[in-house]
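We read letters as residues; the integers encode the fold. Take this protein.
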Amino acid sequence: MVKSITSLQNPIIKNILLLQEKPRERKIQGLFVIEGNREIRLSIFSGFIFKTLLYCPELVAETALEELKNSVIPQEFIKCSREVFNRIAYRKDSGGLMVLAVQKQLSFEDLKLSVSPLLLVLESVEKPGNLGAILRTADAARLDAVIICDPLTDIYNPNTIRSSIGCIFTIPVVTSTSSETLKWLQSVKIKAFGTALTANRFYHETNLRQPCAIIMGSEATGLSTLWLEGADDLIKIPMRGKIDSMNVSASAAVVVFEALRQRNFC
């Protein structure tokens, strides 16, 4: 049965706004919002469970809606008026489709690593836009996983999902602490290469063909002492300008694709 909502005061609508705006609510409820046909389909492929499917008949293509209805079985379907949907939509181009999905919390044990894994570890990432851009790089490189240590932003932040264009659903993402991550890397014999301006070795002079994790720190403070002292080696990108800083998402792309080049893009 399809419910119909035309009031902005409806409790379901108010709750969606809370989930869009409040990390605490997302954590307490274990839910988050996905908008747009592409992102929803990617999440289906990754096995996310939907609680609610919302749509606006005036904004969604009928074929897209029918295909989606045949692909998922949420607990409820809700039809929204244009006014209501535009109020709850985080994006202006979400095409009249939105779902409430159950969060996944992957652990290291959930990861299925390749023979020579390549991972990206992000310490204390702050900006959801940067995280989203990095996830796009991770998807393009088909990394084994992205590990987020001591996160300062919620991976299910709507801006992360938007800026990642759905790549948060295409790459395994694990959240952990830096100390637990370092111990795990050591236990599975994956080399940790920390990126730091104090490094003596350039990234392109380093053997990145072996099982390895590239560790990126925040733009504000760089890597913590734990990684600076605990990493197997420290590497850096040559800086020829007057400013010795690059956006963390750009830096991640540079080093990741050097690793792919060394692996003949396999």
The radius of gyration is 20 Å. The mean pLDDT is 93. The chain is about 35% helix and 20% strand. The longest helix spans residues 248-262.
